[in-house]
Write a structure and sequence with these properties.
single chain; 121 residues; mainly beta; 7-stranded mixed beta sheet; 4-stranded antiparallel beta sheet; elongated
């Protein structure tokens, strides 16, 4: 089993910044892509940003230029730096990890528990 622990959510004013972190731990695994998704009330979960093992990134159009995803392969962590936050960024943010489980010999996907980000004055 693999556990994902997220941190860094909270309440921030429009124009402010937050940094989310997610750490993966557990049984032996090899991580492929790591990413962040979000889900606002009444809406479907959507991709925010993803980063591959080699550092290639992809962002939702709505966050390009404002959010930056990064990862530390040695520590199995992924971060999301969010700047110039807007009220429409308000959502529960979920960490997602695509990995190969070296114990069960299979490729699988894990989700974090979610962290609330609220942008409001």
């Amino acid at each position: 089993q693999v556990q994902l622990v997220e941190s860094g959510g909270g309440l921030v004013q429009p124009g402010g910044s937050l940094r989310l972190s997610c750490a993966a731990s557990g049984s032996r695994f090899s991580i492929n892509a790591m990413g962040w998704y979000r889900q606002a009330p009444g809406k479907q979960r959507e991709l925010v940003a993803v980063i591959t093992t080699s550092g290639n990134t992809n962002y939702a159009d709505s966050v390009k230029g404002r959010f930056t995803i990064s990862r530390d392969n040695a520590k199995n962590t992924v971060q999301l730096q969010m700047n110039s936050l807007k009220p429409e960024d308000t959502a529960v943010y979920y960490c997602n990890v695509d990995l190969f489980d070296l114990v069960r010999i299979l490729r699988t996907n894990y989700w974090g528990q979610g962290t609330q980000v609220t942008v409001s004055s």
